[in-house]
Design a protein that fits this description.
Structural class: alpha+beta
Distance between the termini: 47 Å
Largest sheet: 3 strands, mixed
Mean pLDDT: 90
Strand order of the largest sheet: 1-3-2
Length: 83
Amino acid sequence: MDTPKRKKAPVAGVLGIGLDNADGHKRLTRGKDFLLAGGSEETHAQMQETMIKVTERLDQRGKRIRDASPDELRDLISEAADR
């Protein structure tokens, strides 16, 4: 008997959480299909820059975050965060 293949759940959006905030500021950024919360000023800025690059690359492909596969999204985030 074959085991059923699991369907990959669609990506509904990206949630980025920064945990290194020591200055007491509450940082929150919302975009199309993503939400970034917390982090130091530097960490939050890095998360913002990463998501800007990811959404730009997806726009070039005619996609939004919700249209990307989890693997594609993971690769794009990894590439964007490395630069």
